[in-house]
Structure formats: structure tokens, C-alpha cells
Design a protein that fits this description.
The chain is an alpha+beta fold and about 700 residues long. A hairpin with a 4-residue loop joins β22 and β23. α20 runs antiparallel to α21.
Amino acid sequence: SRQAFQELVEQVPEVIYTDVIGGSWQYLGPNIQDLCGYSAPELLNDPGLWKTIVHRDDRERLQTAVDALSFGDVLNIEYRLNTRSRGVIWVRDHGVVKQAVTGGERLLQGLLADVTQQKQVEAALMDSEANFRTFFETIEDMIVVGTPDGHIFYTNPALQRKLGYSPEDLAAMHVLDLNPEEKRQEAEEIFAAMFRGEQKVCPLPLAARDGSWVPAETRVWFGKWNGRDCIFGISKDLRAEQEAQQRFESLFRSNPALMALSSMPERIFTDVNEAFLSAMGYAREEIIGRSSAEISLFVRPQEQMLVAELLQTTRHVAGFELQVRRKDGAILDGLFSGEIISSQGKEYLLTVMIDITGRKHAEQNLAQERQRLENIIQGTHIGTWEWNVQTGETVFNSRWAEIVGYTLEELAPISIATWMSLAHPDDLAASEAMLEKHFRGELDYYDLECRMKHKNGSWVWVLDRGKVTAWSDDGQPLLMSGTHQDITARKQMEAELQQSEGRMRSLIASMNDMVFVLDSDLVFQEYHQIANDSLYQLPDSFVGRRFSEIGFPEPAYGLVMDALTHSMQTGNPTMAEYDLEMPDGRMWYDLHVTSFRDRDGRQSGLTCVVRDITQQKHIEQELKQQFRLQQLLVEISSTYINLPLESVASALQVSLGNLASFVQADRAYTFNYDFEQQICTNTQEWCA
């Protein structure tokens, strides 16, 4: 029988033991070594070893429980052991106190069972329950647990906070009491349908303690709570969602961009905003319930399909340019964005289109303008430059470099220092001064004629013109752009013209004539004179005034005006002679008028040369007087040839009268002079 007992002990998974309370082990099953790694002999021979094996945090609790045992008491305790090879394990110690046959000691006979796995499961369950309760306690959805007949026995803090009920209030309520009174009958019918699987959610609002309604979406199902049959209910507070929906609705309706909602995956329009209807020219009923293909919305449907496929993958697209067709057939350019959104368990495609038709037209116009500008630059052979005023970075075109005999590659690296190294040192100060004036706003443009050194060593003239195109917030120049035009040939022509004009002015200055230049409107432009008193008016009063405004007296005015007009109209030279009454007497002038033309061959002005011929006129008059006197004397002398004596007296009267008229006298006399006596006697008298 002892052998049978031993075999039975070895087959039992628990460790059988007998321990003298306050003493040592009397017996330990051999499977103690499987439990803790120490053999039965080791423990029997060392009474203190077991205490060291017990986990230090459990020793006092175990010792207290054992010390308190009396005969017939039952020990039932769980504690931890520090095993030799398995680490820390949990054991359940279950025994009964008996009296020893001899000696009367308290004997504790019992079983040691390994409950480590059970404790791990319990710990996991406790963690799971803690997590579950934490989830219930922290979730923002409202949770209610009730008996199968609907009486509430648990609610989470979210429900209490959002509806305003205390736990005591809720403990006395039915789940249907959470709905508004007028909605409870409907709620009961919906819950019944949900329990039958005919409906998934209850869309009815919940009633708060203050009487207000909280929009909610509720789901219910049967389950167990701590082993009890129960009803679970979870309600989602839709207030934030409805507020978001209202904000979305306001944004959707009033947005100036074209917006549309389409059901997925059918892509049927379910809503469009006013901007869409206005821009596309449709009435709402012509759009809702139809697809974009049915109204031929997209000009190139294949492009729209590619965007749609991308949207299916990424659920969001942005920045795609597509063309759409209005109801009247007009084409609009749109910048499209799209996103798949969810609402009440259904997916929709939200499409936003910004009308960029005007921008596209502007871009086309800008491209055409740029092409025209490029053509002009190419046609006019103008160099261009761009300058970052703050960093010194510059961009030149190839013509800029070509003007000074280089390629851009030869000038690299290019910066503002490139220009400064090529500019004439004498022109840098003028350039700097003009730039400062432009930066201060005193000049609309930077405009300077300057010299630059050509690769061959010569100096070329350029017209350097530019303007600031971007300013910083504090008013500092950022970017500037402009042009370089080769004006070397013009400057050479100007120099030659200056020399020619100098020679011409020197020639005119040496002339003893007055020279006037008039434009096509007969306005005096410039003059050259020999003396102020040779003119009718002072010279300064001539310039800038029309000929008709200077007060020339008749008939001189008419003679001169006819000559000027004739040359202006015909282009032929014209001459005129006129006289003016001057302070020192009458003056005579000879006028020569010659027209000149502009580059287009049109009559553009007159050159007038005026010569003072007063002295010439006086000489002519004297010569005429002498000739007349000679004729008169011949006539008188011829009168007395073969004249009878009786006719001499009357002939003398006629001769005296003719002589008096010639010298413009009122009386004429003849005298007889006696040289010896030196006496003059009047012998004949004529009176007018």
C-alpha cells in the first residue's frame, strides 16, 4: 500500500506536502523539483531554504497566514516562488491543519499547485478589462448598457457630460427615456427593427436633462456584461458634424469657385453651387441626377478620365488644368481639385474648379507679347540686361555682349562688375548719380549715353536705359531691367554734324547778311544778324513767334509773306525786295528764301537771307540824278543853237524852270558877274 501511495503521489501534478508549523518539512512529493527546481532532499535537509525561495514581497503575508492557523483551519493562499531555472512562478498553497499523533504539533498537510499560467491569464483579463473600461471612460461617443428589458445600469462619462444626467438619474431611467418624449414610440420601433437586423442605425436625437435635443446616430446590440445578458447602445454626437456640415454648406453655396458633389462610384451630380450654375449656364434641374458625360461637360474626356483614375488611387488631386464646355458651347479653362469625402456612410466626390479662362487668355497674350518683344529685340538688335540690385547678379542677352565684341561665354562669370569693368571711367560717376536719382524717385527711368570698351580696344557708344521693376517692403530697389542700344554710328554722325554746323555758323558769321530759319508753320527758330539796328524789331522778339505776329508794316509784309508762302508751297527759291521806315531813315532790303526738307522728303522749313541794300539804293538814285542832270543840260544847250535873239529871253525862262524843277526849287536866277568890278548882277529870274 505504501508503494501504491507513492505511485499515486508521483502521478498527481500537484506537490503533496506535510509541514510542521513552526518547524520543518516532514514530507515533500518528489515532483517538487519540477515545480521549483529544488529537490525534496534539498528542502528537507535545509528547513530555511524554502523561506528564501518564497518571493520577498510575499514572505510576510504567507508567514502571517500560516501563524494564524489552528487545528482544523484551512490554508488557501497564492504566492510567488523564485525558482532555480524557471524564474518567478505563482503557486496556490491549499492545506488543512491537523494534530500530530505524537507530540501534539500542528501539522499542515496540503497541495502546492503551479498557477502561473492562470495568473497570467487573469492579469491579461484584468489588463483587458482595464483597457476596456478606459476605452469606455474616455471615448467621446455616448455608451449605455441596460438590462434586456431596457433599464439602464451603466453609462460612460461622455453620456453623462453631454446629456447632463447624473449616474443616479440614469440608474432610474429606461434606455427609451434618453430619446425625446415625442420620439420614444418611433425609437422603440427602430430599435426593434435593429434587433431584427432590418436597420443599422437610429437617426433620432437624444434628450438632454435641460430639455434640449442632441443630434445623434445610435447603434444597439445584445451582449453580456460581467456575465449578464444586456443591451449595448452607442450614440455618436452629431453636433460637431452638423456644425461642420453647416459650415461646409455655407462655404459650398457662397464660394466663388465652381463646386460640385457627385455620388461615388456612379459620378452622378448630387449638388452644385450657384457659381457652377452661373458660369456653366445651366439650371439646377438640368445638372442634378446627370453625369458629366451626359452633358458633355469636358472638352477632352480622356484627360478627365486620367484624373479620375488618379483620384481613385490617391483620393485627392489638385492643380489639374482641364477645359469644360458651357451650355452655350463656349469653352472655359479650369484649374481642378478633387477629393473623395464621406458623409453618413456614403462616399462623394467633391470637385472644385477655379475659372482661369481670363488668366489663360492673359498668358496667351503675354506669350504673344513676349514673342513680339523678342521679335522687336531681334529686329532692333538691342541688348537686354536684368540686374539684382541687392546681390549684383545680372543676366545679359547675347546682343549685349556682341555690342562690345564678346560672347557671353567669354564674359562669364557675369555680374554688375562685368559692366563696370567695360564702362568708360569718366562715365561711371554720371551713371551712379543717375541711378541714385532713379532710386529716389526723381527720375522715372535711368537713361544714360555712355561709352564701353570694345574687345578690339575702341570705344563704342551705348544708350543704357532701364527701370526698377521690383522694390522691397522698405522701399529699396530689388530688381532692375533695361536695354543697351549701340549708338556709335549716331554719335559719329552727331560729331560730323556738329563740325558741319560749326563750319556753317562760321561761314554765316563772316557774311554781311542777316539769316533767319523758320519752320513749316513760319515760326522763327533761329537767326544771325550783323547789327540790331538793321532789323525792324530786336532779334529776341522774333524767336518762337510766327512771322505774322511780329507786326511787319505794309507793303513790306505782303511782299515777304508772298515770298515765304511761295517757297513753302513749291519748294522753289524766291526773291523779294522791300523797304522799311527805320529811325535813321528808310532802309531797303533784298530777301532770298530757300526751303529745306526732312528725312521723309517733306517741306519742313525755310532759310531766309536778308541783305541790307540801302547804300546800293542810294548810289542808284545818285546815278539816276546825274544821268537826268546830264540829259537836262544837253536839252538846254541844244535849245540855244540857231535860236533867234528875240527868243532867247523866253527860252531862258523855260531853262530856269527846268533847272528849278530838277533841284526841287521855287525860284531860279541868272546872274552876270563883272570880274573886274567883282559885282554880281541879276539878269533873269524864274518863279514857280
